[in-house]
What does this fold into?
Amino acid sequence: MLHRTYTTDARHILTYAQSLDRGGVERALLRLTAGWRREGWRVTLVLASGERLKSDELPEGVTLVDLGRDRYSTLFGMARAVRAAEPDLIFCPGNYYSGAAAIARLRLGRACPPIVGKVSNALVRPDMGRALAWAYRRWLRLHPRFLTHLVAMTPAMAAEAVAEMRMPEVRVSVIANPPVLPAADAAPLALPEGRYIIGVGRLEPQKRWDRLIAALPRLADRQVTLLLIGEGSEREALAAQVTALGLQDRVRMPGHAADPLPAFRGAALAALTSDYEGVPGVLREALSQGTPVVATESSVAVREIVTGPELGTVVPREDADALVAALDHWLAPGRTRPEPVIARGDPIADYLALFERVIAQRRR
It folds into this structure.
């Protein structure tokens, strides 16, 4: 593998998260930190809690700072870790975490390194009521005050950031997440016999897995099963829904999977039924395995991933009939699967080139 040499005056990144078992943002952060380390940069990872961190989960050479309490508010004490580490740059891994970045900027003042943030979730939230949506827009428009630069994963998300955050275009870059690679040492996941639909993501209200479960008994194929990979606060409610619909034999919820790619590869199709998303990586993971997708219109980025009808179907969020029709379409016998969609570009190099520019501008 080619390793690039970067200037020695931009060699230390500090990044952070609440814990590493929350979802796609944190999994992407691990891939990023591993890539930055491979390229010779120092990386400090601050966690509110590393209690459930597996021994082999932290990329080699990453310095871990464990703040010791699994609460988001614990990250408000991150300024002390920044002072001790003296990084060249802080990386905020998603807009869920931007509040902690704002507090760090306030507490560190002029001593705060530049902060590069990433847009990880939708900036337009149709699930919010009028008052909450107004407050959320006001919060978004504060971001240019404490973020030095912003990374969006697709052009449409970048345009949304410019519009909703009022971030100047010159301070927004488009860089994709590094692709998920097979994990050779991951424990194999027992897959259902016969045809199955796969859903991968946190069991949280945002994901609206109840829509997918409700669609299952309406499908033409009454034998197809659902494999729902993930964990979260909605597990009991979803299990109750499964029982109420008599679907105990057709729904499996095995929890987390270290490597979901084999499960994507074996699925008849992948489904994502969220209210809102950023750039849903699970759609790219499914398409990388040649598995068609059905997704709700949960983000401006969805149609940048599902670029044509040969890859999948995008349906309105609240249209249950359209969801069932789309699932039936891709489950029809003999339906042609798409060719695997291969990721292009070098996100690690793009990130480090951006970091170089941001640090150089700060030092000038």
Confidence is low (pLDDT under 50) at residues 1-10.
